[in-house]
TrEMBL record, chain A:
Protein name: B9 domain-containing protein 1
Family membership: Belongs to the B9D family.
GO cellular component, one term: MKS complex
Cellular location(s): Cytoplasm, Cytoskeleton, Cilium basal body
Primary location recorded for the protein, binned into one broad class: cytoplasm
GO biological process: cilium assembly
Record keyword Cytoplasm present: yes
Superkingdom to which the source organism belongs: Eukaryota
UniProtKB/TrEMBL annotation, chain B:
Family statement drawn from the similarity comment of this UniProt entry: Belongs to the B9D family.
Species name: Apatococcus lobatus
Name of protein: B9 domain-containing protein 1
PANTHER family linked: B9 DOMAIN-CONTAINING, B9 DOMAIN-CONTAINING PROTEIN 1
A Pfam entry, by short name: B9-C2
Keywords: Cell projection, Cilium biogenesis/degradation, Cytoplasm, Cytoskeleton
Lineage: superkingdom: Eukaryota
BP GO terms, sorted: cilium assembly
Main localization (coarse): cytoplasm
Amino acid sequence: MDSADCFTVYFTGQLSSVKIPGCKNAYCRYQVLHGEDWERLQGAEHGLTQLARGGRKQELVWNFPLELAYRSTNAHGWPQLIVSVYGFDGWGRDVIRGYGSAYLPTFSGRHKVKMHLFRPQSATTAQAFTGWLWGMQAEYADGAYPGCTEGRELTRTISAGQVNVEMTTMTKDMELYGYSDGAQPVSTRNGPA
Amino acid sequence: MRFEASCRSSCLGPEIPGCKNAYCRYQVLHGEDWERLQGAEHGLTQLARGGRKQELVWNFPLELAYRSTNAHGWPQLIVSVYGFDGWGRDVIRGYGSAYLPTFSGRHKVKMHLFRPQSATTAQAFTGWLWGMQAEYADGAYPGCTEGRELTRTISAGQVNVEMTTMTKDMELYGYSDGAQPVSTRNGPA
């Protein structure tokens, strides 16, 4: 495909750290969703970080590098990063800590994104207790659910800290498509070649 | 040919004093010249509870795209925040509205909320007792300018929203959105 037939967006950054009250260890499963017009050129769209433990009362650091490149003809369906943070409780069982989502930054530059996390609350107090007892707390069956807008009214959630993401975005040829992303002046356009 | 404006927002959450749980019903209004390309114009968030003294988090993603020939009728986001009181009844927490940002870039928008005050103290008391506090019949009312003098309101916290806007071809229509210089125009193709 000729480079002028589409614009390209490069994302480089990292899942820096996570801060969840009362949580002393955590790892993250991430995935990136995008629309139909988008094609991934490079990078892993899903993966796992390491299990991080905090030092002396420090936030948990992953420093997990992310590098993704996409091309598209259409700004619709911009890539969206979805994270699911898990950890081990006092009895060594894998429990959910929180979910979060954020769109990757849409204009060139360096961005610090704070993803506020939430996790589903059990339907009843009895379920919450047995979930805590057996280490099987309420989770979402579909990992992409935190990134969707429809069906949100069906869930009750509790706040669960935040994930810090640092991301640098670089765009190429977006002005040929008439997009003004706010980071640069639009040059005199001749339209897509 | 029309210009396009798209907005990717994350409705982070409310900050309402004394409110330990909340969900939001949102809708987006726009003028007649605007056509929605993508995104849901109305919906519901989840019911969020604060963690250990943490703020309430919705983290609700919203991607909207419109096209138009006319900047009039720019899309406006209207939220109605509800919650459950101590007796488990659904009560109104506040209403708010904000226009989607009109120029490209990343914006942090604080939507200040208000809710209607009952006409008399007796009504306020019975409303609190039965869990039927004063509400607006029309969800779009907070976004309207006419008829506001008919209501008395009380402040009710705020909703934090992060929005990233991207525009396309606006300079062809001569619009300067403040984020970029207007290039030499050849008019709409």
